[in-house]
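Researcher: Please translate sequence to structure tokens.
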Amino acid sequence: MGMNNTPAGERVHIGFFGRRNAGKSSLLNAVTGQELAVVSEIRGTTTDPVYKAMELLPLGPVMLIDTPGFDDEGTLGEQRVKKAKQVLDKTDIAVLAVDAAEGMTVCDEELTALFREREIPFIIVYTKTDAADTARSADTRLGEQREEVRDKNKITSVMHVSAVTGTGIHELKERLAAMCPDREERHLVADLVKPLDMVVLVVPIDSAAPKGRLILPQQQVIRDLLEVGAVPVAVRESELAEALAKLGEKPALVITDSQAFEEAAAVVPEDIPLTSFSILMARYKGFLKIAVEGVRAIDSLRDGDRVLIAEGCTHHRQCDDIGTVKIPRFLKQYTGKDICIETASGTGFPEDLTPYALVIHCGGCMLNEREVLRRMQFAKRQGVPVTNYGTAIAQMKGILERSIAHVHI
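Model: Translation complete:
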């Protein structure tokens, strides 16, 4: 998969923040004007953030988020805080643009407080430092501020740049690369298999699957297996039994779509490890442990309990089908209780989750991992059990223990 085709959920998200006249847009244009190819641009209205997927050397594939100016003067205000938080939910690294002539304002201080609250690494960039006297006066102020800009015993990076002359832009990109979260160590499946291991993938091709395509987790698992030198064999559940008989050797692992887990579990001998794409994806995104803890709440649901089913996207028919039709049906069959089921899709995730006895989130393949993990931790902090589609289905089908037995949580 070329860098240009890197899924949005896999890119490091860098958010640019600042007041309307802070030179934020010029800064972002200066950063994007060098050594990269603009791959796609998703525009909202002028008041909405603009997302730009691109190559940013030496960082690789990133998603840059250009936010609207947060205020002209004074404090952020309730609506702007809400908007800032929505973008921060997706942000891995924050860049705060500050007009060097004006220095940090109350609004900027409030933004840095939000970064700290979310534990997002950030860099303060003084813009418009073309004039030497401006830079000097900013430096003087910096000396006073440097001690204040502390985050977990680290002094946050502070830089001076000029979008006009290009001064400091290269250094800013180097600094951003150094702040990039290290994701190299994690694998979807490669750490569970050896080179030349046979891995059987059970992929239902039904009316809900996008025509002519495999869904994203399936593509990513195949890619991960090929990278480690394993041998993926993909079959539909209807061919699974015959394919296993024909293989001539026991596969090291069978990975199935959650929807076909029951059929696969019935066919795959107990001594062959069996798991699902969504279990692997939850592990990769770092929330399998929370999902397994939260799923136990299904067994204690009572009549009248409210369950929230949350989807990360609004346009993926397969997610839609599972979230609005299959999981509610499974829940009612499994618990035998009269449960009130509500759904939230896209970015409409409620602030207050306390009315719910359980939150079941989709696999989040269209959200970046910070956002999915944040939603799950958000629920946990409010004392509300939370799990995801694949873990919930595995629990209700009685195969969760088997599907996590060979997976390091």
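Researcher: Any highlights?
Model: Residues 34-40, 131-136, 141-155 have pLDDT under 50 and may be disordered.
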